[in-house]
Amino acid sequence: MARQKLRFKPYAHPAGGWGAAAATAKALMQESVLTKGSRALLSMNQPGGFKCPSCAWPDAHCTKKLEFCENGAKALAHEATKFRAHRDFFARHSVTEMAAQSDYWLEKQGRLTEPMRYDAATDHYVPVSWDDAFALIGQHLRTLEDPNQAEFYTSGRTPNEAAFLYAILGRAFGTNNFPDCSNMCHAPTSRGLPPSIGIGKGTCVMEDWDHTQAIFILGQNPGTNSPRMMSNLVEARKRGVPIIAVNPMPERALIEFTEPQDVIQMARFGHTDIASDFLQIRIGGDLAFLKGMMRALFERDAAGEGVLDHDFIRDHTSGLDALRADVMAHDWPELVEACGLPEAKIRECADIYAKSDATMIAYGMGITQHQRGTELVQQISNLLLLRGNYGKPGAGIVPVRGHSNVQGDRTVGINEAPTEAYLDRVRDAFGFEPARAPGHHAVETVAAMEAGTVRVFIGLGGNFVRAVPDTDRAYRAMRSVGLTVGIATKLNRGHVVHGHEALILPVIARSEVLATAKGEQFVTIEDAMANVTASRGVLEPASPDLIGEVEIVCRIAQAAVPDSPVKWAEYAQDYDLIRDKIAEVFPEIYTDFNTRIQQPMGFHLEVPPRQRIWNTPDGRANFLILPGLEVNDPVADPTMLRLATIRSHDQFNTTVYSDNDRYRGIRGGRMVLFMNAEDIAANGLSEGAEIALETISTDGEPRRVEGLSVVRYSLPRGAVAGYYPELNPLLPLYYFDPLSGTPAAKSIPVRIVAG
Ligand SMILES: Nc1nc2c(c(=O)[nH]1)N[C@H]1C(S)=C(S)[C@@H](COP(=O)(O)OP(=O)(O)OC[C@H]3O[C@@H](n4cnc5c(=O)[nH]c(N)nc54)[C@H](O)[C@@H]3O)O[C@H]1N2
Ligand SMILES: Nc1nc2c(c(=O)[nH]1)N[C@H]1C(S)=C(S)[C@@H](COP(=O)(O)OP(=O)(O)OC[C@H]3O[C@@H](n4cnc5c(=O)[nH]c(N)nc54)[C@H](O)[C@@H]3O)O[C@H]1N2
Ligand SMILES: [Mo]
Q1: Among candidates 469, 463, 462, 429, which has minimal Cα distance to 446?
Q2: Which one in 356, 414, 668, 686 has a CA-CA gap of 20 to 30 Å to 678?
Q3: Is the CB of 365 under 6 A from ligand 2?
Q4: Phi–psi pair at 432, nearest 5 degrees
Q5: Cα angle for residues 79, 80, 81 (degrees, 5° grid)
Q6: In Å, how far are 159, 353, 377 from 624, measured between CA atoms?
Q7: Domain count along the chain
Q8: Which of 742, 746, 747 to mutate to test the pocket of ligand 1 (most atoms within 8 A of CB)?
Q9: Mean pLDDT of 484-507
Q10: CA 515 to ligand 1 center in whole angstroms
Q11: Which ligand 2 atom is the nearest neighbour of the CA of 406?
């Protein structure tokens, strides 16, 4: 398909509105599924229907309205597409040819229809029977010298039932090598919040939005990445609730938004102002901003204003004095310098916070993807604890999760460092001794591939090689693996950058009917607010040869661990049996799973901080310290710019829907670098100039991306931004948060070199 030329024109309208409505229709038309897709959208996120395959935002708790957004519709359109990558497509294109194509081209070929095996002799994928595919996997796995030579990757679209069994499969096989997409995403939440409040999850539910008195949104772009959150923000704003957005980029939807489902607002071309305050922070400046807010509160409290919740602090927390000492060690000029916001602004925010009796703080990748992301998450929690903002209506922490079931996958056992308690329960429930030694997270998996110790890589969804740092190295590493298996709906980079032997196993998608010998089955997912709901597909599967992810996991298990006491064959057919086992392994939260899941809106998993119960070693919530004001290692190079790799409005992670990014005014290209006007001038450049970017690496390895066009954009000085995954070659494998393993994708030190 002919590609457009890159154009840039600032977007002058509110986000949402007619632009969103038009984009929804266009996505359905482009995939040629206008009627089928529109019908399916009526079932999306409705009781009895299926869960949106896009983001993890929960459904509204009490409305009958349609529950989808533009980007959910795009995700569905691309899943329900009429295009197919049949066997003749693979016969026409060698893998080398396919590897030279763009991600967009690969995606565009449509749904995979039958299992395929890589044939090295012809460099083509050729059809393979399901039986032979599983036999090949079994043969590779059974002949490993050490089970830790296998890696079991999960992407967060995987439903609970498949993820739970996959976790059992790995442990029965003998490894905890469970790299997960969350290792690149909200692992700082999963690792950072347990020592703080006793659970690695958000504490709010949808009702909280009706009671909150102040909302902070740090490092998150809801208009693009969780558009249904916009309804909550619009409602809150209409009630007069202050919303403070903290972001280096003035994301359109954070400023003005028109509800596409608000008929009157649409007809009048009206909109709602979203942020009452937009704070354009330096990349990585959030630590200084949070400490500044805390400093303002400590100062006022010392002056007798009583802005801290002393009763809550006394009854529920530990560590206040150490936190105060740490925060007060930084004077205002230091704080202002580090975050780039004026003292008066920070004090104003602290004042809004001090006047609110119920505050919610939401955050996304702008917080987690830094070298000290885990500890930064803990500072958000500190700020909430200072005013008792846990365990009361309208208050709490809101990590905005990415993939629709990424939180659920972790809950049911996808974890490279599982707890002993979980492993004991697995042993008792299934009658085998699970592997106990911690395994690899995503970055460690690439490192192990490079070290030559990975012989089998299985990807349950996702696009591992394209999502991880250091693209060139990751590709080389992946190519050294003995067997790579991609369990997928669509063709992606991970299938054309593969091991010596390779399989593509296509699956029935979320929106499609899942039938087994025991009849129609449903799966469950856990959203970002810990609601567990059933998902029942309504569309006919893209091909009669597809099977469900659960069956794939069970059949791999049967081939790899033939003498296992686990009843794989039964689970493959009857998902109620899997849910009974989930209830047995997680009785505190999943008791009576099969009964409770029958409720139309599902049920909520217990989040103890909502009751002010803290499952920490001392039974209290803890103030935790991160000394200093930097969340990334300083770089002594005056030419250094900090690069944030971000998502456009027209992509879902590594899946690129188009080359446009409507709200940022980009059309026809993704190789752009957003830059502040003064930085453009200081580098002797002009808008539209073609440049190359180079990482300021500490390991001596050159990392460079060429062919980027400079776009003048409102950003703080020293901050630049561009698109993931195109810029992943600039993200070094070593550049991650050691506490969570999460790559610091929002703060890569780079410099501009001649284009
Ligand atoms: N349509 C769509 N929906 C999605 C996805 C998608 O790709 N497309 N991906 C899903 C997934 S897996 C995830 S994790 C989420 C991601 O959703 P988000 O968390 O919104 O992800 P990003 O677009 O990567 O970055 C978020 C914001 O961080 C800001 N930022 C960068 N650096 C900093 C910083 O230092 N401080 C602050 N305060 N802000 C900073 C950027 O300007 C950007 O607005 O969305 C999920 N939903
Ligand atoms: N530089 C940089 N790197 C990043 C990020 C960043 O912001 N910057 N973000 C990180 C984040 S937050 C995340 S979550 C990761 C994402 O990493 P992944 O989760 O690995 O990547 P996705 O692009 O979401 O995976 C897309 C593929 O999933 C498959 N798929 C889709 N639906 C289904 C299904 O129903 N079942 C199965 N089995 N497969 C399906 C399709 O084949 C599709 O090609 O990337 C991370 N990498
Ligand atoms: Mo994510």
Answers
A1: 469
A2: 668
A3: yes
A4: -140, 160
A5: 95
A6: 34, 20, 10
A7: 3
A8: 746
A9: 98
A10: 36
A11: 14
Q: Which of 594, 628, 656 is the last residue of a domain?
A: 594
Q: What is the DSSP letter of 403?
A: B
User: Which residues, in sequence order, are bridge partners of residue 539?
Assistant: 512
Quick check: is 356 in a domain?
A: yes
What's the Cα-to-Cα distance from 448 to each of 152, 156, 626, 731, rounded to whole Å?
Answer: 13, 22, 30, 18
Angle, to 10 degrees, between the axis of helix 420-430 and the axis of helix 160-173?
A: 90
**Using CA positions, which residue lies closest to atom 38 of ligand 1?**
219
Whether residue 624 lies inside any domain: the answer is: no
Q: Which is it for the CA torsion 116, 414, 191, 406, positive or negative?
A: positive
User: Does any ligand 2 atom lie closer than 6 A to the CB of residue 489?
Assistant: yes
Give residue 487's domain range.
105-185+405-594
Q: Which of 345, 369, 403 is the last residue of a domain?
A: 403
- Residues 433, 303 share a domain: no
Phi, psi of 552 (to 5 degrees): -60, -45
675 has pLDDT over 70: yes
The answer as to whether 64 is a domain residue is: no
pLDDT tens string 562-617: 999 999 999 999 999 999 999 999 999 999 999 999 998 899 999 999 999 999 99
Reduced to 3 states (helix: H, G, I; strand: E, B; else coil), residue 116 is: strand
Same domain, 250 and 213: yes
The CATH number of residue 515's host domain is 3.40.50.740
Instruction: Assess contact for 409 and 385: CB atoms under 8 A.
Output: no
pLDDT for res 284: 97
> Does 385 lie in the same domain as 462?
no
Nearest CA to ligand 1 atom 17: 225
Do residue 581 and residue 559 come from a single domain? yes
Closest-CA residue, ligand 1 atom 47, reads 225
628: how many CB neighbours lie within 10 A of its CB? 16
**Is 402 touching ligand 1 by the criterion CB < 6 Å?**
yes
Percent of the chain with pLDDT over 70: 98
Does residue 304 share a domain with residue 263? yes
In 3D, which of 256, 190, 188 has the Cα closest to residue 219?
A: 188
Torsional class of 665: left (φ above 0), alpha (ψ -120 to 50), beta (otherwise): left
239, two tokens = 């009630």
Are 645 and 501 within one domain?
no
If asked whether residues 350 and 484 sit together in one domain, one would say no
- Domain CATH number, residue 340: 3.40.228.10
**Same domain for 332 and 286:** yes
- Provide the CATH number for the domain around residue 694: 2.40.40.20
Write the CA distances from 334 to 288, 343, 349, 496, 600, integer angstroms. Answer: 8, 10, 18, 49, 53
In a domain, 538, yes or no: yes
Each residue's pLDDT tens digit, 156-169: 999 999 999 999 99
Q: What is the pLDDT of residue 263?
A: 72
User: pTM for this structure?
Assistant: 0.96
